[in-house]
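Hello again,

I reread your note about wanting to compare the complex against the isolated chains. To keep things tidy I'm splitting this into two emails, and this first one only covers the full assembly. Below are the input lines as submitted, including protein chains and any nucleic acid or small-molecule components. They are followed by the predicted structure of everything together. The single-chain runs will come separately.
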Amino acid sequence: MTLLQTRKLSAFYGDFQALFDIEVSVDQGETIAVIGANGAGKTTFLRAVSGALPSARDAVLFDGEPIGDKSAHEIVHLGIAMVPEGRRLFPSLSVEENLLLGTHSDRTGPWTLKRVYDLFPRIYELRHLPSTALSGGQQQMTAVGRALMSNPRLLLCDELSLGLAPVVIRDIYACLGMIVAEGTTVVIVEQDINRALDASSRFYCFQEGHLALTAPTTGFDRASITAAYFGL
Amino acid sequence: MEAAVETTRVERGTKASRIFVFVALPVLVALATMPWWSDSGNVRLVGEMAYYLALAQLWNLLAGYAGLVSVGQQAYVGLGGYALFYLTGPMNMNVYLAILLAGPFAGLMAIPISFAVFRLRGAYFAVGTWVVSEVVGLLASLFAVLGAGSGMSLTPAILRQISPDRDTRSMILYLGSLGISVFVFAVVYLLLRSRHGLALTAIRDSEPASASLGVNTFRTKFIVYLATAACTGLIGALIFLQKLRISPEAGFSINDWTVVVIFMVVIGGIGTLEGPFIGMLIFIVLRELLADYGSIYLMLLGAIAIVVMLKAPFGIWGWIIQRYDLQLFPVGRRLVLTPPAQPTQK
Amino acid sequence: MDWINILIQGGLLGGFYALFAIGLSMSFGIMRLVNIAHGDLIVLAAYVGLVVTERTGLDPFLSMILVAPIMFALGYVLQRGLLNQTLTGGLLPPLLVTFGISIIIQNGLLEVFGAYDHRLEEGAIETASLHLPGGLSIGVFPLVVFAVAVLSIASLQLLFYRTRLGRAFRAVSDDADTAELMGIDNRKLYAYALGIAMVFTAIAGVLFGIRTIFAPSAGPIRLILAFEAVIIGGLGNMWGTLIGGIVLGLAQAIGAALDPNWQILAGHLAFLAILIVRPNGLFPRTRD
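Full-complex prediction:
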C-alpha cells in the first residue's frame, strides 16, 4: 500500500525553482533513501512533504489524501514527523522537554517517553540537562526521539550523520532499524551514499532539483549511482 | 547590410519625470503666489501641508532609506522650537538669525544623542529614540529660563522684527514654510542622487550585504541622522514661530510630530520620494473633511495605515509603481536598451 | 532613616512598573512583538474596570474577574486577526500596526469618555499604611501591588516551566519554524500568548486605576516605563523584568528625593545609562 506519493512536485524559494516535477512513491513500512549532491533538492523535498514549504494541493498525497496545501503543524497531526537537518533542538528546553514537545501531535501509538529512553538509554541519564549540554550524537538521538514521540506513520530524517563520528553514526542507524521494526515508514536523506543505501530498500537520486535515477538498492551497480549522483 | 547592434545606455530621468517637471514648476509658482490670489485660510492650510511634507520626507529618508526607524524625531522639532524662543527671548537675538541657528543647534544636539541611540538596534533603537526625546522634553520643563512646564511665548516685539505689517508677516511665514519644504525636498533628493544615495538604497535593501560590499553604513547613517535632525529642528522653529507659543508638551509631542508623520509615509509609500506627498495629502484631506468630528480622523488615519501596512506594505505609491512603472523623482539609474537602428525606409 | 524610606518606596514602585511590564515582556519574549499599544491597553483595561464597577457596583479589585476575561478575548482576537500578519517582514509592520492600534485606542477613549480624569475608588486601603518601628511607614496599597507583581511573575514561571502550554511558548520563542514542525500551530499559540499577556495587563490596568487618576492620554508613558523595565531586566527573563522595574523605581525615588521634578527624568536616565553599558539589559535570556 502506498503511504506517500508525490505527483509532479515542484517547489520554489521566491522566484527560484528548487524542485521540478518530482515523482516519489513510498510504500507502508518501507525505508527509502533520497540521495544527491549538495543543492540537489533533497532537503527541499523533505520541507515540501512536511509542509514547511508550500506546494500544490495534489502534488503530495499521504495515505491517498492530498496534503500539499496543508501547513506544517497540520501535517504533523496526520502522522508525518521530521528530524530536521542540524537537529534543531530547542536550546532553552531540557532534553526531556524537547522529547515531550513531540507530543504536540496529539497522536498515540507505541512511542512513549519510556520507549524512547529504552531505545536511547544514554539520553535517559541526561534528561534533565539543557539540550545544549549534549554531544552531537546525543543531540541527534534526542532529535530522533522527539520525532518519534509524535508517533508518526512516516518519519523524515534529514542528514542524520551530519557532523557525527562514524561510531556514533553506526549507533544511530542501528536504532533506525528498531524504529522500522515498529512498522514506521522512513525516508532518509543523506550525503553519505553508502550509509543511506545500506539502510534502505530503494533509493531516489536527485540532481539539480530533478529526479535523476530511482532503483532498488540491492544488486544495483554503485558506479551508475555515482554517475547519477554527480550528473556524469 | 549592416548588423543591427543593440546598444545600452544608463539613464536617470524617466518620461514621467520629464513631464512632471513641466507640471510641477507652474504648480510651484502658483503656490508661491498664493497669498496674492487666495484667502488666508487656504494659505495657512497649504503652509501647514508644506511643513508636514517636509517632516514626512525627513522621516522617510531616515526610516525608509537609512533603516533608522526613529520614533523620537519630536525631540528635534522641540529643540528647534525652543532654540528659536530662547534665542529671540532671553538672548535678544534677531529672529531671522535665530531661525537660521535653530537647525544647526538641533543638528549639534543630535551628535551626543546619536552616540547613545546608535548603540541600539531595531526595536531598541526605536524605543531608545523615544525615551531620549522624553528626556529632552523633561529637561526643557526643568529650566525656569525656558518657562519650565508652562513654556514660552513670542512677544509682539519679536514678531515685528519679521515685518511690522501683519499681512506681510504672514506672507513671509507662508513663503518660509514653502521654502523649507522645497529645501528639504532638495536636500533629500540630492542626497539620494549622490554617492551616499546609492549607499542608502543599498542599506535599505540589505544592510549586511551593503556592509560586506564596503559601504560604510555607520558613517552614512550618521550623516543622514544629523542632516535630518538639523532640518527637523529648522522646521520646528518655523512651526512654533507661527504658533507663537511653545511648551514641553506641545514641542515634544510624539503624536503630533512623529506618529502622524509615520502614518503619512507608510500610507503614501515608504522608501519612495513620491510616497510622502500622497500620505500628506491623505492626512490633510481626512482632517479637513472630518474637522467636525473631533479626533475621528486620527482613528481613521491609524486604521488606514494598518490596512496599508498589511495589504500593500510599500504604500499607495508602491502599489502604483508596481502597476504602472512610474517614477516622478528618479534617484536611481536605469539601464535602457536601445533597439537596433532600423534600416531607413525610402 | 529618610533614605531607607525612600528606597522602600522606590522598590515598591518598581513592583508596580514590573506589573505594567509583564504583558509586554511576554509578547516581546515569545513573539518578538514590539507592542506600542501596550500602554494604551493598560489604560483601556482601567476604563473597562471603570465601566464594570459603575455598571455592576462591584468593588474595583473584584472587577478584575470580568476585566481579565474581556482583555484576554481582546488580546486573542487582536493577535489572530491583526498582529499575526505582522510577524514576518521586519521591525516596521508590528511597530506601525501597534502604533495604529495605539492611536485608535487613545482617540476612541477620548471620544467615549472625554479628556477628563477618572479614578477607580477602592476606599480606605488606598491611603492606609503600616507603621514599622524606627519611623518607617509603608503604604498598604503599594505593598499589595508589589505582592501581586511577584505572584503574577511566579505564576507565569509556573506556566512556562511546569505546563505543556508553557513548554510550547518557550519552544516557539527559541525557534518558531521548528516548533511548527513539531505540530504546534504558532499562530494560535501567539494568540494565547497575547491573551494571557492581556490578563496581566488587565490586572495592571485596574490597579493603576485605583492608584492614580487616569485619562485617555495616559498610555504612552506607561508603555515607556514598561519597556524600560523589560529592557533593563533583559529580554525573555520575567524575574529580570521585576528587577528592571525595581531599578527604575529606585532611580525615580532617588531622583524625586533630590527634586520632585526629577522623578521621571531620573528613571529615563538610569535606563539610558544601563542600555548604553549593557545593550541587552542586565539579565538577558532570550536571544534576539
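For quick reference: The two ends of chain A are 34 Å apart (CA to CA).

B.
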